[in-house]
Every structure is written in C-alpha cells, then in structure tokens.
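your task:
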Amino acid sequence: MANHASAEKRNRQRITRTERNRAGKSAFRTELKKARVAIASKPADAAGLVKEAISTADKAASKGFIPKKRAARVKARLARALHKATQAAAAS
C-alpha cells in the first residue's frame, strides 16, 4: 500500500506500463505464430506474413517490449525457416 502521493503515482504508472508491455508482447507473439504456421502449411504464401512478423518484431524491440537481440534472432530464424521451406517446396 502506497503511503505517499508520489508512490501512488508510481504505482499507477507501473500498472499502465505493464498493460502496454503485455499487449505489445502478445501482439508480437501472435504475429510470430501466424508466420510460423504459414511457413509450415503453405510456404509459397508465407512471405507476406513473415514480412509482417519481422515488422512487428522491429516495432516491439524499438518500443522495449522485447530486447533488440531477441528481435534480431527471431527475424533471422523466420527468414531461415521460410527459405528452407520454399527450397523444399520447389525441390518436390
């Protein structure tokens, strides 16, 4: 329980920030999941969703929802998975 006005304000700020971060992380994970499912099911049509997921990762990193290196790692893995899937689809 906050005993000072400044502590009450910091608590309100913490709640607002937590909700914003949670929403941003959730949106990032949703886009990531959509892209991964698209790569697994239809690699030929997945390029657009991968592009959206990469954009969302950049936005999440710039706003501090996720670390910048995590965004870079996710983007690299998505690009690699898309490349592998398209190569496998073209070979068969």
